[in-house]
Amino acid sequence: MDGIQHRIVKVNGINMHIAEKGQGPVILFLHGFPELWYSWRHQITALASLGYRAVAPDLRGFGDTDAPPEVTSYTCFHVIGDLVGLIDTVAPSDEKVFVVGHDWGALMAWFLCLFRPDRIKALVNLSVVFNPFGSNDNLIEALRAYYGDNYYMCRFQKPGEIEAEFAQIGTETVIKEFFTFWTGDRIFLPKGKGFGRPPNTPIALPSWLSEEDVKYFTTKFDKKGFTGAMNYYRNINLNHELLAPWAGSQIQIPTKFIIGDLDMTYHMPGVQEYIHKGGFKRDVPLLEKVVIMEGVGHFINQGKSNEISKHIYDFFNKF
């Protein structure tokens, strides 16, 4: 953590917190849920030592970045507007940047490459594959039909409801539950029953997550709350509608994709077929490599930090 600098930049009408370290070509790191810039702490240090300038923002609604109150202020266009503004700030004069994304950050990285390929040199994405879009299908209802009402994405839809339940459970417990739960299983949150454990049940942390790490995430989510983060999920259907003009578009950026074989996202309907039977390469024709890491769950950048840093360096070093 030594040498990581923090500052606030004005982008797209909001104040965005960024952490950065190093000198050289810019690598933009985009976090997921329930995460922060801090999720990239290991990669920031590693890549900075290898001659890159690592820049990791708190996305809108998270950490020390502004959280607009309106649910509809969290569409993909708002978030990508923030990121383009950030690129203009840290890489002026139309310089291209490298991008690394995980979870929601991976999804936003796909969109960033789709909308502004002129600003992106290469991409390493973790856990979330490119998702073709364009129809007006109600994705949340499709998930509800497949998994049921208690599936976590479905439970996140009603503003205020899950936030109230998380307040009762306690932020620290919520953080620990998510970071220890996301393996090949699905997350279900029955109303009033939290994560299915009795209150005050001890939660054993994985080796890659310390109590100090939990304290950092907890402090920030205690301050900010979960609403901004939830609003990404509440715009899933709207994003799908907004992206209709890009139906059939391809990602034309050199890409490396990494996922754990225990990651819940790897076991969602159709994902493995999409990855292994040609669909992924069709939609991302410059996809150079897919890495399936054995025995690894969802939080791959934290759980396998050294390996992920090496994968990033080995790929970006070619450009």
Folded structure, characterized:
The structure is a single chain. With 319 residues, this protein is of the alpha/beta class. It has one domain (5-316): Alpha/Beta hydrolase fold, catalytic domain (Rossmann fold), CATH 3.40.50.1820. The chain is 39% helix and 16% strand. It has 14 helices and 8 strands. The chain has helices spanning 41-49, 76-90, 104-115, 139-147, 152-155, 161-169, 171-181, 211-224, 227-233, 236-242, 271-276, 279-283, 300-303, 305-316, and strands at 5-11, 14-21, 26-30, 53-57, 97-102, 120-126, 255-260, 287-293. It has an 8-stranded mixed beta sheet, sandwiched between helices. A hairpin with a 2-residue loop joins strand 1 (5-11) and strand 2 (14-21). Helix 1 crosses helix 14, helix 2 packs across helix 3 and helix 7 packs across helix 8. The longest helix is centred in the first third of the chain and has 15 residues, at 76-90. The protein is globular.
Spell out the key features of this protein.
319 residues, alpha/beta, Rossmann fold, eight-stranded mixed β-sheet, 14 helices, 39% helix, globular, AB_hydrolase_fold, hydrolase, AB_hydrolase_1, EC 3.3.2.10, soluble epoxide hydrolase
